[in-house]
Amino acid sequence: MSDTRAETIADKVRADAKMWARAWKRKLTFSLFLRLFLLEPGFQLAFSLRVMELSAKVPGFGKILRRLVWYTTVRSFGCDIGVEVQAGGGLYFPHPFGIVVHSHSKIGRNVTLLQNVTLGIVDPSDPGCPVLEQGAWVNAGAKLLGPVIIGADAVIGANAVVLADVPANSVAVGVPARVLPKKAARVVSSVSACPR
Predict the structure, then answer these.
(1) Which of 107, 112, 73, 108 is nearest to 92 (CA)?
(2) Do residues 156 and 166 touch, judged by C-beta distance below 8 A?
(3) Which of 74, 98, 137, 194 is most enclosed, with most CB atoms within 10 A?
């Protein structure tokens, strides 16, 4: 997670666009970037997070400006991604609706979140939040709750409820989520990663 602080906002936007280009198996060009910016809600959501981050740096009324951008994002996408979320470059939201991310969650580089994913707390008295390491892929409807660490390139299955750490390069499925044996994990992981 330490690499996310070294990235500038421009680096993050560029990485977001490259992630989309990779998913579409295309080279990132200005025309593709323009299409993403104007017509792709998932890229627009990621871009709005970058604008929130930039807004916070405005002297005097940055917090108010950031909150206004957040409100617009909530209204536009039906998502609630906290204003203080730390997110690395390469965010990929192919279906950017219904996503809820607690403000203290941390998202690494090249992470994918599908629709209706929740990253949140278990108990208000214990506000530990999820940490997603580089390359994590969280499928539709998954709930990651509490101070869990999702390892690099791990895949979380659809509608899984994750209450414990998930090791790198593994797959977690079920309610509560369990980590699949490596052999089964390879099959599920290759299916989940198709649009990557």
Answers:
(1) 112
(2) yes
(3) 137
Range(s) of the domain holding residue 87: 3-192
Task: Specify the pTM.
Answer: 0.85
**Residue 119 near residue 87, CB atoms below 8 Å:** no
Helix (H, G, I), strand (E, B) or coil at 190: helix
Number of domains into which the chain is organized? 1
Question: Amino acid identity of 122?
Answer: V
**What is the spatial distance between Cα 131 and Cα 183, in angstroms, rounded to a whole number?**
25
Task: Report the length, in residues, of the chain.
Answer: 196
Q: What is the CATH number of the domain that holds 48?
A: 2.160.10.10
Rounded to the nearest 10°, the torsion over CA 39, 41, 45, 51 is 20
